[in-house]
Amino acid sequence: MAIWVVVVWFAALTQLSSSSIITSPGFPSPAIKSVHHSKSKGKLYEEKFYTQILDHFNYNPASYHTFQQRYLINQKHWGGPANNSPIFVYTGNEGDIEWFAQNTGFMFETAPLFNALLVFIEHRFYGKSIPFGGKKTVAYSNSSTLGWLSSTQALADYATLVLDLKHNLSAPDSPVIVFGGSYGGMLAAWFRLKYPHVAIGALASSAPILNFDNITSPFSFNDIITKDFRSESENCYKVIRRSWQEIDDTAAKPGGLEILRKAFRICKNYISAGYLQGWLGTAFTYTAMTDYPTPTNFLNPLPAYPVKQMCKAIDDPKTGNNTFKKLYAAANIYYYYSGDATCFDLADDSDPHGLGGWTWQHIHRVLKRFGSNIIFFNGLRDPWSGGGVLKDISKTLVAIVAKKGAHHVDLRFSTNEDPKWLKEVRKREVHIISKWLSQYYHDLADSSNY
Ligand SMILES: *[C@@H]1O[C@H](CO)[C@@H](O)[C@H](O)[C@H]1NC(C)=O
Ligand SMILES: *[C@@H]1O[C@H](CO)[C@@H](O)[C@H](O)[C@H]1NC(C)=O
Ligand SMILES: *[C@@H]1O[C@H](CO)[C@@H](O)[C@H](O)[C@H]1NC(C)=O
Ligand SMILES: *[C@@H]1O[C@H](CO)[C@@H](O)[C@H](O)[C@H]1NC(C)=O
């Protein structure tokens, strides 16, 4: 889940296990450097707005308000209503929908196989889908306005928009399949459970739906990060572990903060041991989450298998026994890989992906044991997999688990360097989706006989 606030939120839920390498109690801002909106990809979709209802569950006059909800649409491969061709819908996460669309190559790549229409819907309160006249300061001003920011309302938004779109397209019988990664994956799964008449199936990638209601060990998130690094090398694990104490000790000495500032090339701004530790913790956490097999530009530009690269930097004999030099080299993999920063700005509070409102949602839903047609994908190197569905629940609630997989790696655009296991995962997902569709068309043909 590509979001620092999530980590903050999670840190609140997560106690620290004694052997974990992530020991800082909270994480500061992510220091994500830029939004990687590539202009060349602008033609992937068309941007549209829909007049959405602010409150789906209340008839108070205050709830009659509407807002403009953004969605992106790609009709290039759609077979049209005459063929009842399918509609693939991405249930937007907590952020700018363009960013998620551009990182969900799986939908673009499978659309031609299924003659599918693609729709990416932005989550309310994010990106350009801000209620209260698009004014973020008003929308986020207090608990009354933020009361309309909930996953339940968001799901109702998606249902309303999808039904209206189908109506406009005169495609009442086109089957809908929902997709999502991370929080978007939870929404996709919940959408299928809650609106089974709107979506015939869901692909929920890296959706930690079991992180709620005490189902998952509170240690699992940091344990997985720790295991990711430890599996590279024991030394790497040890260096990271002892570094927290060394930073504390150094910071406590006279002139210690200046030593730390120099060692980590921090720009001349606020620095403390906790901030520095949080900054490093963020790098380890996101690197574990995005430990993809190919170079990526999802959160920050990263090389292939960045955890391995970090440990290589830490294990490099050239840095001898100098913990700070080792950590600096490791942090560089995450914060510096594109090589365009001159010093690191710890106090940078920017939230370039617009992910800030996340902590407001209280999502307390247990996985329902009813339901069908949901694929849960999880990569076990992803710290969020600890809260994922890792075992089949039924014949049609299927878990696909990739030992070497990271955070919703299956949904990303494919590349020539993709390993065989990743190709297999995607093939299996396509196969399951085609089974849902054939079943649907079969049932549709049957019902027309009545
Ligand atoms: C919350 O903010 C809205 C919009 O700015 C305002 O109309 C309303 O009075 C505020 N409510 C409270 C309880 O402060
Ligand atoms: C459906 O068409 C109406 C009328 O043109 C329009 O206002 C509405 O936004 C459309 N719905 C969607 C989802 O685009
Ligand atoms: C979660 O589990 C722990 C340990 O079993 C227990 O102490 C705690 O009260 C539980 N919390 C909730 C919200 O059920
Ligand atoms: C490296 O440094 C750590 C503490 O800074 C120390 O415990 C360890 O013994 C040192 N190892 C070597 C090989 O010098």
From TrEMBL:
Q: Which UniProt keywords apply?
A: Glycoprotein, Hydrolase, Protease, Signal
- Report any Pfam family annotated for this entry: Peptidase_S28
Which N-terminal stretch is annotated as signal sequence? 1-19
- Entry-linked InterPro entries: AB_hydrolase_fold, Peptidase_S28
Key word 4Fe-4S present: no
Which Gene Ontology molecular-function terms are recorded? dipeptidyl-peptidase activity; serine-type exopeptidase activity
GO process terms (BP): proteolysis
Family the entry assigns: Belongs to the peptidase S28 family.
The name on file for this protein is Lysosomal Pro-X carboxypeptidase
